[in-house]
């Protein structure tokens, strides 16, 4: 008896959470300000680690960072930072936590100027590399690879599925 197996990108491994993320979230257009802020922040925390690690800690991150409410995160002070650095459910990295607070302030300014973060990201140059450079210049602790990963994850550029993946270009 032949089984019908769906082929996905190799990074999904056999992990149900990665498979669900790949199939239902990755590359789908995000619109809400807090959702976009969350996606960018998680990509920042992922730098140097695996996406599997971050995805499995995502619910902990959401609790720790007040569901990525931009207004709440931008107001974090030393007491909250200390709690975050003690939270074993997230990645405890001081520079990334500081960058998240800084980026919440940047996000709020962008929302005031553009009406939403989506409008800001939509206003970036069409060229992928130019988009990456603009994000790198705007947000703290974002390199070109992190910017590209965010743009793919949030649906601003086409995600790079493997040739064999059922979601890849045919």
SSE arrangement:
Blueprint: H1 16-24, H2 33-46, H3 51-64, H4 70-73, H5 78-86, H6 94-114, H7 117-123, H8 128-138, H9 144-153
Compact description:
With 170 residues, the chain is mainly alpha-helical. It has one domain (30-153): Orthogonal Bundle (Endonuclease III, domain 1), CATH 1.10.340.30.
Helix-and-strand structural type: mainly alpha
What is the CATH superfamily classification? Hypothetical protein, domain 2
How far apart are the termini?
Answer: 27 Å
Counting structural domains, the number is: 1
The percent of residues in helical segments reads 55-70%
> How many helix segments?
9
Strand content: under 5%
Mean pLDDT over the residues: 95
Regions with little confidence, pLDDT below 50 for 5+ residues: none
Instruction: Tell me which CATH architecture applies here.
Output: Orthogonal Bundle
Shape: globular
Strand count: 0
Radius of gyration: 17 Å
Order of helices and strands: HHHHHHHHH
CATH fold topology: Endonuclease III, domain 1
Main sheet attributes: strand count, strand direction, barrel closure: none
Mind telling me the CATH class?
A: Mainly Alpha
């Amino acid at each position: 008896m032949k089984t019908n197996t769906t082929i996905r990108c190799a990074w999904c491994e056999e992990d149900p959470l990665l498979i669900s993320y790949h199939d239902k979230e990755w590359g789908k257009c995000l619109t809400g300000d807090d959702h976009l802020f969350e996606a960018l922040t998680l990509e920042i925390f992922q730098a140097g680690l695996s996406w599997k690690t971050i995805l499995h800690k995502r619910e902990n991150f959401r609790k720790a960072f007040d569901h990525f409410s931009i207004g709440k995160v931008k107001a974090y002070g030393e007491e909250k930072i200390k709690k975050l650095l003690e939270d074993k459910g997230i990645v405890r990295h001081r520079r990334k936590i500081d960058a998240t607070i800084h980026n919440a302030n940047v996000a709020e300014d962008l929302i005031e100027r553009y009406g939403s973060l989506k409008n800001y990201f939509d206003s970036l140059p069409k060229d992928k590399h130019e988009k990456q450079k603009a994000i790198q210049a705007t947000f703290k602790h974002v390199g070109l690879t992190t910017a590209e990963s965010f743009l793919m994850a949030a649906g601003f550029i086409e995600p790079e599925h493997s040739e064999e993946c059922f979601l890849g270009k045919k």
